[in-house]
Amino acid sequence: MAERPGVLRVNDRVIFAGATHTVVAISGNAIRLLSAAGTTTVVALPFLLSAVDFELVGAAPASRVDPHGLLDALPAQALQAARDWERHLIEVETGLPPNAEADAVARPEYDPEVHPLAVREAAKAAELTAAGSKTSLRTVQRMRRRYREQGLWGLVDARHARAAKPTGNVDARVVAAAAAVVEAQTGTSTGTKSRAIRQIRQLLDDEHGEGVVALPSQATCYRLLEALSAGRYSFGSAVTRRQTANKPVGAYAATTASRPGEQVQMDSTPLDVMAVMDDGILGRAELVLAIDIATRTICAGVLRPVGAKAVDAALLLARVTVPEPMRPGWDAALAMSASRIPHQRLVSLDARMALAAAKPVIVPDTVVIDHGKVFLSEVFLRAADTLGISVQPAHQQTPTDKAIVERTFESINTLFCQHVAGYTGRDVTRRGADVAERAVWTLPDLQELFDEWVIAGWQSRPHDGLRHPFNPAQAASPNDAYAALVAAAGYVPVALTGEDYIELLPADWRAIGDGGIQIDYRTYNCAELRPYARKNSGVASRAGRWEVHYDPYDVSRIWVRNHHRGGWITVPWTHHSVVGQPFADFTWRASRKVAAQRGLDDTNEMAVSIVLAALLRRAEEGPGSLRALARTRTAHAMDNHLPPELTTAALAGPALAEPVPPADLPVTPGPEPEPELEERPQVLVGEVVPFALFDPFADDLEAGR
């Protein structure tokens, strides 16, 4: 019964482009057609055959190829029954069963030279009935027609050949209500199927009236919910359910880029590591990351306390566009000169590359961001506009738009975080019992470790998603990919200068007084700033104030634009020698709050500086200082232990007459120390006892009394 495909000959009539044509000539792949209106058209044969409305007029239906995949999926008994029918029908058509011997002779009742087709069909019906399978003539004729139209698949029992129907024969109204209930489970807490069945019943009663639509049995309802919730996790993990719902409905496509910087994806996420913050309290660090798609280079990664600001994203752009310097203690193998990056060519363009680490500088053309406030802020967008970078927001709730940076976060947690002291695991079920005790790294130390790991581990590690164009069988590292693609791009972006970096910092406008510039009760002054004290900047729109840029994570210095001579003036904080290390603006605010709680003047710059120095020292000491800090806070929360008569107002004068400097500050020779508290004479009411100045470096308040 197998037939050869149909053929196209001269004088055949075809339907093409909505009209009937006659084939008048065939030359290779060129077909000349003559329309009924007398116009001729020459068409390529592939184009003619692939036309939507092409049809060969008067031709028999084309034979169909058997769907072998569907046939193999049938039960063996059903497939054998279809093949038996095929053998009977072939005998009716040709007189001989399939695979007959070459010298075989047709049986008398099926000889096509003796009996017409109708007689042979009747004989086959009688034969099958006599064999115990009651079969009518119409059944044989129907099976012949289905066999000619569908091949062997047309002979399969309809119960096995019918299309899949996941919801079975359940009432369409019940199916619609169940689908609505399953859809509503996405944002709710996970419940059971029995709750969903009750919600279906309620929904049907509200829409069609109470009791109008009958629910199927409980087992059928369970099967219906199982079918409708397949792959949606409606009755499983709520997190997985929401993540699945956020996946786009369209087909996934790989994000590709042909040159460094063509597309850079940016995002932020909390790291699975506990760090010691500036105030000595443990907390998770948040990583703001930028990764290049073409080379998988981690362009920059900035660690901040959880709750990144808009300036963090802006500073990340600035850090992307400057070389990564070698740090003290780093191995010489981490230098760019020891890598496969075209170092000499880069040094000829920018001398700073001579001391750079083995990570390329990639200036983005386009950055892909999510809809977080830090990336949609005016500070970030202004920084991107300053650098000439196009900002492309991803679709909301669509992490697949920036899938590479999302996958990189997982790699960082696996390759870096789990090897760092204080690793928490990705969720509470994987968290150890001693995470707080193991957390010893401060945030700056953790940043230093991460930067070194990026150079030593990530940039030189082969990546399965990278292939060298001349050796596609071998995975390439980000540095290898950069070396290959930068040659293909034909240019090397020039890195930003230090002044460009300052331009990206947050700006404020301040007046310059005799004492310098004051910001949040901090005074900044230097000799270079002195000539401009009490002078007008010349910017009329800002009432003569001066433009000041600052890094909110290091407010130990500021930069003032010289509106008269150009350039920038770097102005240090006047009390930086007391603190001795960089600190953030939120740390300063926390120090002012602590000073106010201790009864000190939170506008007194020196007093707040001493409190700040104590907080930073405790942060350096790590988690062990938490207990002392907790004792201090507990003592502050308790009632005053002094007699009511000995108030702070009564003691203010004599207390400050002979101050005692903090323990860590230089001490000049003086009188012998006072005896211990238990050796002191009893204090009488009204007697003033000199108090030492509060020592912020002490472990608790008792040490300062």
In short:
It is built from 24 helices and 18 strands.
CATH architecture of the largest domain: 2-Layer Sandwich
Give the strand tally. Answer: 18
The CATH topology of the largest domain: Nucleotidyltransferase, domain 5
Identify the overall geometry: elongated
Percent helix: 25-40%
Can you offer a commentary on this structure?
The protein is of the alpha+beta class and 705 residues long. It folds into five domains: 68-161, no CATH class; 172-245; 264-495, Ribonuclease H-like superfamily/Ribonuclease H (Nucleotidyltransferase, domain 5); 514-574, no CATH class; 585-704, no CATH class. The strands form five sheets. A five-stranded antiparallel β-sheet has the order 4-3-2-1-5. A five-stranded mixed β-sheet has the order 8-7-6-9-10, with helices on both faces. The protein has a four-stranded antiparallel β-sheet with strand order 13-16-17-18. The longest helix is centred in the N-terminal third of the chain and has 19 residues, at 76-94. It is elongated, with a radius of gyration of 41 Å. The termini are far apart.
SSE layout:
Layout (H helix, E strand, L loop, with lengths): L12 E4 L2 E9 L2 E6 L4 E5 H5 L5 E2 L11 H5 L3 H19 L22 H14 L6 H14 L7 H4 L10 H13 L8 H16 L9 H11 L9 H8 L18 E13 L5 E11 L5 E8 L4 H11 L22 H7 L16 E4 L3 H4 L1 H10 L2 E4 L9 H13 L19 H4 L4 H16 L4 E6 L2 E6 L1 H12 L8 H6 L3 E4 L6 E3 L2 E3 L21 E6 L2 E8 L6 E5 L3 H4 L5 H13 L7 H17 L4 H12 L10 H8 L50
Parallel strand pairs: 6-9, 9-10
Antiparallel strand pairs: 1-2, 1-5, 2-3, 3-4, 6-7, 7-8, 11-12, 13-16, 14-15, 16-17, 17-18
Helix pairs in contact: 3-4, 4-5, 7-8, 8-9, 11-14, 21-22
